[in-house]
Amino acid sequence: xxxxxxxxxxxxxxxxxxxxxxxxxxxxxxxxxxxxxxxxxxxxxxxxxxxxxxxxxxxxxxxxxxxxxxxxxxxxxxxxxxxxxxxxxxxxxxxxxxxxxxxxxxxxxxxxxxxxxxxxxxxxxxxxxxxxxxxxxxxxxxxxxxxxxxxxxxxxxxxxxxxxxxxxxxxxxxxxxxxxxxxxxxxxxxxxxxxxxxxxxxxxxxxxxxxxxxxxxxxxxxxxxxxxxxxxxxxxxxxxxxxxxxxxxxxxxxxxxxxxxxxxxxxxxxxxxxxxxxxxxxxxxxxxxxxxxxxxxxxxxxxxxxxxxxxxxxxxxxxxxxxxxxxxxxxxxxxxxxxxxxxxxxxxxxxxxxxxxxxxxxxxxxxxxxxxxxxxxxxxxxxxxxxxxxxxxxxxxxxxxxxxxxxxxxxxxxxxxxxxxxxxxxxxxxxxxxxxxxxxxxxxxxxxxxxxxxxxxxxxxxxxxxxxxxxxxxxxxxx
Length: 479
Known about the structure:
Blueprint: E1 7-9, E2 12-14, E3 18-24, E4 27-37, H1 40-59, H2 62-78, H3 80-91, H4 95-115, E5 122-125, E6 131-139, E7 142-146, H5 154-165, E8 169-173, H6 179-191, E9 199-201, H7 206-215, E10 221-225, H8 228-240, E11 244-248, E12 253-257, H9 263-275, E13 285-291, H10 292-308, H11 327-342, E14 346-349, E15 352-353, E16 361-362, E17 365-368, E18 385-391, H12 394-402, E19 406-407, E20 409-413, H13 417-426, E21 431-434, E22 450-451, E23 454-455, H14 465-468, E24 469-477
Helix pairs in contact: 1-7, 2-4, 3-4, 3-6, 4-5, 9-10
Protein backbone atom coordinates (compact mmCIF):
# COMPACT_ATOMS: atom_id res chain seq x y z
CA UNK A 1 0.00 0.00 0.00
CA UNK A 2 2.98 2.30 0.33
CA UNK A 3 3.37 2.52 -3.46
CA UNK A 4 0.48 4.16 -5.35
CA UNK A 5 -0.95 2.20 -8.27
CA UNK A 6 -0.61 4.19 -11.47
CA UNK A 7 -2.28 4.41 -14.86
CA UNK A 8 -0.68 2.66 -17.85
CA UNK A 9 -0.32 5.03 -20.81
CA UNK A 10 1.90 4.43 -23.86
CA UNK A 11 3.73 1.62 -22.08
CA UNK A 12 4.62 3.70 -18.98
CA UNK A 13 3.11 3.90 -15.50
CA UNK A 14 1.78 7.42 -15.07
CA UNK A 15 0.49 9.33 -12.03
CA UNK A 16 -2.95 10.90 -12.21
CA UNK A 17 -4.64 13.96 -10.82
CA UNK A 18 -5.02 12.52 -7.32
CA UNK A 19 -5.09 9.19 -5.44
CA UNK A 20 -8.27 7.38 -4.43
CA UNK A 21 -8.60 4.86 -1.62
CA UNK A 22 -9.76 1.36 -2.51
CA UNK A 23 -11.55 -0.11 0.55
CA UNK A 24 -12.72 -3.62 1.38
CA UNK A 25 -16.55 -3.91 1.63
CA UNK A 26 -16.10 -6.83 4.05
CA UNK A 27 -14.04 -4.61 6.35
CA UNK A 28 -14.16 -0.90 5.58
CA UNK A 29 -11.14 -0.26 7.82
CA UNK A 30 -9.04 -2.26 5.32
CA UNK A 31 -7.54 0.10 2.73
CA UNK A 32 -6.47 -2.15 -0.13
CA UNK A 33 -4.43 0.49 -1.91
CA UNK A 34 -4.20 3.96 -3.39
CA UNK A 35 -5.03 4.26 -7.09
CA UNK A 36 -4.26 7.14 -9.43
CA UNK A 37 -7.30 8.93 -10.85
CA UNK A 38 -6.70 9.93 -14.47
CA UNK A 39 -7.60 13.28 -16.00
CA UNK A 40 -9.09 14.18 -19.37
CA UNK A 41 -5.54 14.98 -20.45
CA UNK A 42 -4.46 11.45 -19.49
CA UNK A 43 -7.28 10.06 -21.64
CA UNK A 44 -6.07 12.21 -24.52
CA UNK A 45 -2.52 10.87 -24.13
CA UNK A 46 -3.80 7.29 -23.93
CA UNK A 47 -6.02 7.68 -27.01
CA UNK A 48 -3.20 9.30 -28.96
CA UNK A 49 -0.78 6.53 -27.99
CA UNK A 50 -3.35 3.90 -28.96
CA UNK A 51 -4.01 5.53 -32.34
CA UNK A 52 -0.27 5.66 -33.06
CA UNK A 53 0.36 2.05 -32.02
CA UNK A 54 -2.67 0.37 -33.59
CA UNK A 55 -1.63 0.28 -37.29
CA UNK A 56 1.64 -1.54 -36.55
CA UNK A 57 -0.11 -3.91 -34.15
CA UNK A 58 -2.55 -4.93 -36.90
CA UNK A 59 0.11 -5.03 -39.62
CA UNK A 60 2.13 -7.67 -37.76
CA UNK A 61 -0.51 -10.22 -38.62
CA UNK A 62 -2.45 -12.58 -36.39
CA UNK A 63 0.33 -14.73 -34.94
CA UNK A 64 1.86 -12.12 -32.59
CA UNK A 65 -1.64 -11.27 -31.39
CA UNK A 66 -2.45 -14.92 -30.74
CA UNK A 67 0.86 -15.43 -28.95
CA UNK A 68 0.34 -12.41 -26.68
CA UNK A 69 -3.18 -13.47 -25.68
CA UNK A 70 -1.95 -17.00 -24.98
CA UNK A 71 0.82 -15.66 -22.72
CA UNK A 72 -1.68 -13.44 -20.92
CA UNK A 73 -4.00 -16.43 -20.37
CA UNK A 74 -1.16 -18.47 -18.86
CA UNK A 75 -0.11 -15.65 -16.54
CA UNK A 76 -3.68 -15.03 -15.36
CA UNK A 77 -4.12 -18.72 -14.62
CA UNK A 78 -0.83 -18.85 -12.71
CA UNK A 79 -1.88 -15.83 -10.63
CA UNK A 80 -5.52 -16.91 -10.14
CA UNK A 81 -5.32 -17.01 -6.35
CA UNK A 82 -3.56 -13.62 -6.12
CA UNK A 83 -5.99 -11.91 -8.49
CA UNK A 84 -8.98 -13.72 -6.98
CA UNK A 85 -8.02 -12.56 -3.51
CA UNK A 86 -7.82 -8.97 -4.77
CA UNK A 87 -11.21 -9.37 -6.46
CA UNK A 88 -12.80 -10.76 -3.29
CA UNK A 89 -11.33 -8.00 -1.15
CA UNK A 90 -12.43 -5.09 -3.31
CA UNK A 91 -15.73 -6.35 -4.80
CA UNK A 92 -17.02 -8.71 -2.11
CA UNK A 93 -17.43 -12.01 -3.97
CA UNK A 94 -16.59 -14.98 -1.78
CA UNK A 95 -13.13 -16.28 -2.58
CA UNK A 96 -14.15 -19.46 -4.49
CA UNK A 97 -16.38 -17.39 -6.79
CA UNK A 98 -13.64 -14.79 -7.23
CA UNK A 99 -10.99 -17.36 -8.18
CA UNK A 100 -13.45 -19.03 -10.56
CA UNK A 101 -14.07 -15.68 -12.24
CA UNK A 102 -10.33 -15.12 -12.70
CA UNK A 103 -9.97 -18.56 -14.26
CA UNK A 104 -12.83 -17.68 -16.58
CA UNK A 105 -10.86 -14.58 -17.62
CA UNK A 106 -7.91 -16.82 -18.51
CA UNK A 107 -10.20 -19.05 -20.58
CA UNK A 108 -11.50 -16.01 -22.45
CA UNK A 109 -8.00 -14.83 -23.36
CA UNK A 110 -7.09 -18.35 -24.49
CA UNK A 111 -10.24 -18.61 -26.61
CA UNK A 112 -9.49 -15.34 -28.40
CA UNK A 113 -5.88 -16.36 -28.92
CA UNK A 114 -7.37 -18.96 -31.24
CA UNK A 115 -9.86 -16.56 -32.77
CA UNK A 116 -7.01 -14.21 -33.76
CA UNK A 117 -6.00 -16.90 -36.25
CA UNK A 118 -9.54 -17.44 -37.54
CA UNK A 119 -10.69 -13.99 -38.64
CA UNK A 120 -13.37 -14.75 -41.23
CA UNK A 121 -13.53 -13.50 -44.80
CA UNK A 122 -15.13 -14.42 -48.12
CA UNK A 123 -14.16 -14.72 -51.76
CA UNK A 124 -17.23 -14.38 -53.98
CA UNK A 125 -17.87 -14.60 -57.67
CA UNK A 126 -18.81 -11.25 -59.20
CA UNK A 127 -21.81 -10.82 -61.44
CA UNK A 128 -19.37 -9.26 -63.91
CA UNK A 129 -16.94 -11.38 -65.94
CA UNK A 130 -13.28 -10.99 -65.01
CA UNK A 131 -14.00 -9.34 -61.67
CA UNK A 132 -13.06 -10.88 -58.31
CA UNK A 133 -14.76 -9.91 -55.04
CA UNK A 134 -13.09 -10.27 -51.65
CA UNK A 135 -14.81 -9.46 -48.35
CA UNK A 136 -12.45 -8.97 -45.41
CA UNK A 137 -12.62 -7.77 -41.82
CA UNK A 138 -10.39 -5.05 -40.42
CA UNK A 139 -10.10 -3.58 -36.90
CA UNK A 140 -12.23 -0.58 -36.02
CA UNK A 141 -9.14 1.21 -34.59
CA UNK A 142 -9.06 2.45 -31.01
CA UNK A 143 -11.67 0.92 -28.72
CA UNK A 144 -12.71 2.50 -25.43
CA UNK A 145 -13.80 -0.08 -22.86
CA UNK A 146 -15.86 0.99 -19.84
CA UNK A 147 -16.39 -1.91 -17.44
CA UNK A 148 -18.56 -2.42 -14.31
CA UNK A 149 -17.69 -3.38 -10.75
CA UNK A 150 -19.59 -6.65 -10.46
CA UNK A 151 -17.29 -8.81 -12.64
CA UNK A 152 -13.96 -6.95 -12.47
CA UNK A 153 -11.94 -9.76 -14.09
CA UNK A 154 -14.30 -11.50 -16.52
CA UNK A 155 -15.95 -8.50 -18.16
CA UNK A 156 -12.69 -6.61 -18.87
CA UNK A 157 -11.32 -9.90 -20.24
CA UNK A 158 -14.21 -10.46 -22.63
CA UNK A 159 -13.77 -6.95 -23.98
CA UNK A 160 -9.94 -6.65 -24.01
CA UNK A 161 -9.26 -10.07 -25.53
CA UNK A 162 -11.36 -9.74 -28.72
CA UNK A 163 -10.33 -6.11 -29.17
CA UNK A 164 -6.65 -7.12 -29.25
CA UNK A 165 -7.25 -10.36 -31.14
CA UNK A 166 -8.75 -8.49 -34.10
CA UNK A 167 -5.98 -5.88 -34.22
CA UNK A 168 -7.43 -2.95 -32.29
CA UNK A 169 -5.76 -0.85 -29.62
CA UNK A 170 -7.48 -0.39 -26.26
CA UNK A 171 -8.17 2.30 -23.67
CA UNK A 172 -9.71 0.64 -20.57
CA UNK A 173 -11.57 2.45 -17.80
CA UNK A 174 -12.55 0.07 -14.98
CA UNK A 175 -15.26 0.89 -12.47
CA UNK A 176 -14.09 3.25 -9.74
CA UNK A 177 -14.97 0.72 -7.02
CA UNK A 178 -12.67 -2.04 -8.35
CA UNK A 179 -9.41 -0.61 -9.74
CA UNK A 180 -7.25 -3.28 -8.11
CA UNK A 181 -8.28 -6.24 -10.26
CA UNK A 182 -7.99 -4.16 -13.44
CA UNK A 183 -4.55 -2.95 -12.38
CA UNK A 184 -3.36 -6.55 -11.94
CA UNK A 185 -4.70 -7.43 -15.41
CA UNK A 186 -2.96 -4.37 -16.87
CA UNK A 187 0.29 -5.38 -15.22
CA UNK A 188 0.02 -8.86 -16.73
CA UNK A 189 -0.61 -7.46 -20.22
CA UNK A 190 2.35 -5.11 -19.83
CA UNK A 191 4.71 -7.78 -18.52
CA UNK A 192 3.56 -10.28 -21.17
CA UNK A 193 4.97 -7.98 -23.85
CA UNK A 194 1.98 -6.00 -25.09
CA UNK A 195 3.50 -3.24 -27.30
CA UNK A 196 3.48 0.27 -25.83
CA UNK A 197 0.22 2.06 -26.57
CA UNK A 198 -1.69 -1.03 -27.69
CA UNK A 199 -3.24 -1.39 -24.24
CA UNK A 200 -3.80 1.57 -21.92
CA UNK A 201 -5.37 1.72 -18.44
CA UNK A 202 -6.99 4.96 -17.23
CA UNK A 203 -8.62 4.75 -13.80
CA UNK A 204 -10.97 7.24 -12.22
CA UNK A 205 -14.57 8.44 -12.11
CA UNK A 206 -16.85 8.04 -15.10
CA UNK A 207 -17.81 11.71 -14.97
CA UNK A 208 -14.22 12.61 -15.89
CA UNK A 209 -12.52 9.60 -17.50
CA UNK A 210 -15.56 8.01 -19.12
CA UNK A 211 -16.79 11.33 -20.47
CA UNK A 212 -13.38 12.11 -21.96
CA UNK A 213 -13.29 8.71 -23.66
CA UNK A 214 -16.74 9.09 -25.18
CA UNK A 215 -15.90 12.56 -26.46
CA UNK A 216 -12.42 11.76 -27.80
CA UNK A 217 -12.22 11.82 -31.62
CA UNK A 218 -9.49 9.16 -31.82
CA UNK A 219 -11.58 6.58 -29.95
CA UNK A 220 -13.69 5.11 -32.72
CA UNK A 221 -15.75 2.57 -30.73
CA UNK A 222 -17.10 2.29 -27.19
CA UNK A 223 -18.05 -0.93 -25.40
CA UNK A 224 -19.88 -0.26 -22.14
CA UNK A 225 -21.39 -2.44 -19.44
CA UNK A 226 -23.38 -0.70 -16.71
CA UNK A 227 -26.71 0.94 -15.98
CA UNK A 228 -29.40 1.61 -18.58
CA UNK A 229 -29.43 5.32 -17.73
CA UNK A 230 -25.68 5.70 -18.34
CA UNK A 231 -25.90 3.52 -21.43
CA UNK A 232 -28.52 5.77 -23.00
CA UNK A 233 -26.36 8.83 -22.27
CA UNK A 234 -23.36 7.16 -23.89
CA UNK A 235 -25.45 6.21 -26.92
CA UNK A 236 -26.62 9.77 -27.53
CA UNK A 237 -23.12 11.20 -27.23
CA UNK A 238 -21.45 8.44 -29.23
CA UNK A 239 -23.82 8.88 -32.14
CA UNK A 240 -22.87 12.56 -32.32
CA UNK A 241 -19.25 11.44 -32.73
CA UNK A 242 -20.22 8.65 -35.17
CA UNK A 243 -18.70 6.03 -32.86
CA UNK A 244 -19.57 2.38 -33.01
CA UNK A 245 -21.23 1.36 -29.73
CA UNK A 246 -21.91 -1.84 -27.82
CA UNK A 247 -24.01 -1.50 -24.65
CA UNK A 248 -24.91 -4.07 -21.97
CA UNK A 249 -27.31 -2.46 -19.49
CA UNK A 250 -28.82 -4.90 -17.05
CA UNK A 251 -31.97 -6.91 -16.58
CA UNK A 252 -34.98 -7.85 -14.47
CA UNK A 253 -34.74 -11.52 -15.26
CA UNK A 254 -37.66 -13.94 -14.82
CA UNK A 255 -37.40 -17.52 -13.63
CA UNK A 256 -40.62 -19.43 -14.23
CA UNK A 257 -41.34 -22.42 -11.98
CA UNK A 258 -44.08 -24.70 -13.33
CA UNK A 259 -46.19 -27.16 -11.33
CA UNK A 260 -44.40 -30.05 -13.09
CA UNK A 261 -40.91 -28.81 -12.13
CA UNK A 262 -38.61 -30.89 -9.96
CA UNK A 263 -38.80 -28.93 -6.68
CA UNK A 264 -35.16 -29.48 -5.70
CA UNK A 265 -33.93 -28.41 -9.15
CA UNK A 266 -36.12 -25.31 -9.12
CA UNK A 267 -35.08 -24.21 -5.63
CA UNK A 268 -31.38 -24.78 -6.37
CA UNK A 269 -31.64 -22.77 -9.60
CA UNK A 270 -33.42 -19.89 -7.84
CA UNK A 271 -31.07 -19.77 -4.84
CA UNK A 272 -28.14 -19.64 -7.24
CA UNK A 273 -29.69 -17.16 -9.64
CA UNK A 274 -31.16 -14.79 -7.08
CA UNK A 275 -28.60 -14.77 -4.28
CA UNK A 276 -25.16 -16.01 -5.29
CA UNK A 277 -22.63 -13.24 -5.92
CA UNK A 278 -24.88 -11.27 -3.53
CA UNK A 279 -27.39 -10.93 -6.37
CA UNK A 280 -25.04 -8.45 -8.02
CA UNK A 281 -25.32 -9.93 -11.51
CA UNK A 282 -27.15 -8.47 -14.48
CA UNK A 283 -28.39 -12.03 -15.16
CA UNK A 284 -29.71 -12.58 -11.62
CA UNK A 285 -33.18 -14.11 -11.14
CA UNK A 286 -34.98 -11.13 -9.66
CA UNK A 287 -38.55 -12.22 -10.61
CA UNK A 288 -39.60 -15.73 -9.57
CA UNK A 289 -42.81 -16.49 -11.44
CA UNK A 290 -44.38 -19.54 -9.81
CA UNK A 291 -47.42 -21.57 -10.85
CA UNK A 292 -50.10 -21.78 -8.17
CA UNK A 293 -49.95 -25.57 -7.68
CA UNK A 294 -46.31 -25.58 -6.57
CA UNK A 295 -46.17 -22.05 -5.14
CA UNK A 296 -46.51 -22.77 -1.43
CA UNK A 297 -44.13 -25.74 -1.39
CA UNK A 298 -41.62 -23.77 -3.46
CA UNK A 299 -41.77 -20.71 -1.18
CA UNK A 300 -41.37 -22.85 1.94
CA UNK A 301 -38.31 -24.65 0.53
CA UNK A 302 -36.74 -21.54 -1.01
CA UNK A 303 -37.22 -19.35 2.06
CA UNK A 304 -35.69 -22.02 4.27
CA UNK A 305 -32.60 -22.32 2.10
CA UNK A 306 -32.28 -18.54 1.73
CA UNK A 307 -32.46 -18.02 5.48
CA UNK A 308 -29.79 -20.68 6.03
CA UNK A 309 -27.24 -19.06 3.71
CA UNK A 310 -24.15 -17.86 5.57
CA UNK A 311 -23.53 -14.17 4.89
CA UNK A 312 -20.06 -13.00 5.86
CA UNK A 313 -16.67 -11.62 4.82
CA UNK A 314 -15.59 -12.56 1.32
CA UNK A 315 -12.40 -14.28 2.48
CA UNK A 316 -14.03 -16.27 5.32
CA UNK A 317 -14.06 -20.00 4.60
CA UNK A 318 -17.67 -20.49 5.71
CA UNK A 319 -19.19 -17.53 3.82
CA UNK A 320 -21.66 -18.42 1.07
CA UNK A 321 -22.61 -14.81 0.29
CA UNK A 322 -20.27 -11.86 0.67
CA UNK A 323 -21.04 -8.22 1.34
CA UNK A 324 -22.80 -5.75 -0.91
CA UNK A 325 -20.17 -3.78 -2.83
CA UNK A 326 -20.62 -0.39 -1.15
CA UNK A 327 -22.53 1.62 1.41
CA UNK A 328 -24.53 3.36 -1.33
CA UNK A 329 -25.49 0.05 -2.94
CA UNK A 330 -26.56 -1.38 0.42
CA UNK A 331 -28.72 1.66 1.16
CA UNK A 332 -30.36 1.32 -2.24
CA UNK A 333 -31.14 -2.34 -1.52
CA UNK A 334 -32.61 -1.48 1.88
CA UNK A 335 -34.75 1.22 0.28
CA UNK A 336 -36.20 -1.41 -2.08
CA UNK A 337 -36.91 -3.71 0.89
CA UNK A 338 -38.89 -0.88 2.48
CA UNK A 339 -40.61 -0.19 -0.85
CA UNK A 340 -41.64 -3.85 -1.17
CA UNK A 341 -43.43 -3.60 2.18
CA UNK A 342 -45.05 -0.33 1.16
CA UNK A 343 -46.27 -1.91 -2.08
CA UNK A 344 -47.95 -4.69 -0.12
CA UNK A 345 -45.44 -7.55 -0.19
CA UNK A 346 -44.66 -9.84 2.71
CA UNK A 347 -40.88 -9.49 3.08
CA UNK A 348 -38.75 -12.37 4.29
CA UNK A 349 -35.21 -11.33 5.20
CA UNK A 350 -33.56 -8.34 3.57
CA UNK A 351 -32.27 -6.64 6.71
CA UNK A 352 -28.76 -5.32 7.24
CA UNK A 353 -26.55 -7.74 9.17
CA UNK A 354 -23.70 -7.17 11.56
CA UNK A 355 -20.58 -9.10 10.65
CA UNK A 356 -17.35 -9.82 12.50
CA UNK A 357 -15.99 -6.63 10.93
CA UNK A 358 -17.66 -3.42 9.82
CA UNK A 359 -18.93 -4.15 6.33
CA UNK A 360 -21.92 -3.92 4.01
CA UNK A 361 -23.74 -7.18 4.82
CA UNK A 362 -27.38 -7.93 3.97
CA UNK A 363 -29.57 -10.98 4.44
CA UNK A 364 -31.16 -12.28 1.21
CA UNK A 365 -34.71 -11.02 0.70
CA UNK A 366 -37.87 -12.54 -0.76
CA UNK A 367 -40.81 -10.31 -1.65
CA UNK A 368 -43.87 -12.57 -1.40
CA UNK A 369 -47.22 -11.69 -2.94
CA UNK A 370 -45.61 -9.46 -5.54
CA UNK A 371 -47.35 -8.36 -8.73
CA UNK A 372 -45.60 -7.56 -11.97
CA UNK A 373 -46.74 -3.92 -11.93
CA UNK A 374 -44.92 -3.19 -8.65
CA UNK A 375 -41.71 -1.19 -8.83
CA UNK A 376 -39.84 -3.98 -7.01
CA UNK A 377 -40.87 -6.29 -9.87
CA UNK A 378 -39.93 -3.87 -12.66
CA UNK A 379 -36.81 -1.98 -11.57
CA UNK A 380 -33.36 -3.56 -11.40
CA UNK A 381 -32.33 -3.73 -7.74
CA UNK A 382 -28.92 -5.35 -8.25
CA UNK A 383 -28.82 -6.99 -4.85
CA UNK A 384 -29.91 -10.20 -3.07
CA UNK A 385 -33.63 -9.49 -3.53
CA UNK A 386 -36.22 -11.50 -5.47
CA UNK A 387 -39.93 -10.87 -6.03
CA UNK A 388 -42.17 -13.97 -6.03
CA UNK A 389 -45.17 -13.70 -8.38
CA UNK A 390 -47.94 -16.31 -8.38
CA UNK A 391 -49.51 -17.25 -11.76
CA UNK A 392 -52.23 -19.67 -12.85
CA UNK A 393 -50.74 -21.38 -15.90
CA UNK A 394 -48.02 -21.37 -18.54
CA UNK A 395 -49.62 -18.70 -20.71
CA UNK A 396 -49.82 -16.27 -17.80
CA UNK A 397 -46.26 -17.13 -16.76
CA UNK A 398 -44.89 -16.37 -20.22
CA UNK A 399 -46.86 -13.13 -20.45
CA UNK A 400 -45.57 -11.95 -17.06
CA UNK A 401 -42.01 -12.99 -17.93
CA UNK A 402 -42.14 -10.89 -21.11
CA UNK A 403 -43.84 -7.90 -19.46
CA UNK A 404 -40.61 -6.05 -18.64
CA UNK A 405 -38.57 -3.22 -20.13
CA UNK A 406 -35.57 -5.58 -19.97
CA UNK A 407 -34.81 -8.76 -21.88
CA UNK A 408 -31.43 -10.16 -20.93
CA UNK A 409 -31.90 -13.67 -19.50
CA UNK A 410 -35.00 -15.76 -18.81
CA UNK A 411 -35.42 -19.22 -17.33
CA UNK A 412 -37.95 -21.94 -16.77
CA UNK A 413 -37.99 -24.98 -14.50
CA UNK A 414 -40.30 -27.64 -15.90
CA UNK A 415 -40.53 -31.33 -16.58
CA UNK A 416 -42.52 -30.69 -19.75
CA UNK A 417 -40.77 -30.71 -23.11
CA UNK A 418 -43.79 -28.84 -24.51
CA UNK A 419 -43.42 -26.02 -21.98
CA UNK A 420 -39.63 -25.89 -22.36
CA UNK A 421 -39.90 -25.63 -26.12
CA UNK A 422 -42.64 -23.00 -26.00
CA UNK A 423 -40.67 -20.93 -23.47
CA UNK A 424 -37.43 -21.07 -25.48
CA UNK A 425 -39.31 -19.77 -28.49
CA UNK A 426 -41.60 -17.33 -26.72
CA UNK A 427 -39.35 -15.68 -24.15
CA UNK A 428 -38.36 -12.14 -25.20
CA UNK A 429 -34.78 -12.41 -23.97
CA UNK A 430 -31.35 -12.77 -25.50
CA UNK A 431 -30.55 -15.86 -23.40
CA UNK A 432 -32.95 -18.59 -22.24
CA UNK A 433 -32.26 -21.27 -19.62
CA UNK A 434 -34.20 -24.50 -19.04
CA UNK A 435 -33.79 -26.11 -15.61
CA UNK A 436 -30.71 -23.95 -15.04
CA UNK A 437 -30.12 -20.64 -13.21
CA UNK A 438 -30.62 -17.48 -15.27
CA UNK A 439 -27.10 -16.49 -14.20
CA UNK A 440 -24.16 -18.52 -15.46
CA UNK A 441 -23.09 -18.46 -19.09
CA UNK A 442 -20.40 -20.03 -21.27
CA UNK A 443 -17.58 -17.87 -22.64
CA UNK A 444 -17.57 -19.22 -26.22
CA UNK A 445 -21.15 -18.29 -27.18
CA UNK A 446 -22.92 -14.93 -27.61
CA UNK A 447 -23.91 -12.86 -24.56
CA UNK A 448 -26.54 -10.15 -24.72
CA UNK A 449 -30.21 -9.30 -24.56
CA UNK A 450 -33.15 -7.48 -26.06
CA UNK A 451 -35.08 -4.29 -25.27
CA UNK A 452 -33.35 -2.08 -22.65
CA UNK A 453 -30.82 -4.77 -21.74
CA UNK A 454 -28.53 -4.48 -24.75
CA UNK A 455 -27.77 -2.37 -27.78
CA UNK A 456 -25.39 -3.20 -30.60
CA UNK A 457 -23.60 -6.43 -31.54
CA UNK A 458 -23.35 -9.33 -29.09
CA UNK A 459 -20.40 -9.89 -26.78
CA UNK A 460 -18.31 -13.06 -26.38
CA UNK A 461 -17.66 -16.01 -28.64
CA UNK A 462 -17.25 -15.75 -32.39
CA UNK A 463 -19.97 -13.08 -32.54
CA UNK A 464 -17.56 -10.60 -30.92
CA UNK A 465 -16.06 -10.10 -34.37
CA UNK A 466 -19.16 -8.11 -35.36
CA UNK A 467 -18.31 -5.26 -32.97
CA UNK A 468 -14.51 -5.25 -33.02
CA UNK A 469 -14.12 -5.28 -36.80
CA UNK A 470 -15.50 -3.47 -39.82
CA UNK A 471 -16.20 -5.08 -43.19
CA UNK A 472 -14.35 -4.14 -46.37
CA UNK A 473 -15.43 -5.25 -49.84
CA UNK A 474 -12.71 -5.19 -52.51
CA UNK A 475 -13.22 -5.59 -56.28
CA UNK A 476 -10.41 -6.56 -58.66
CA UNK A 477 -10.45 -6.71 -62.48
CA UNK A 478 -7.87 -9.04 -63.99
CA UNK A 479 -8.16 -7.53 -67.47
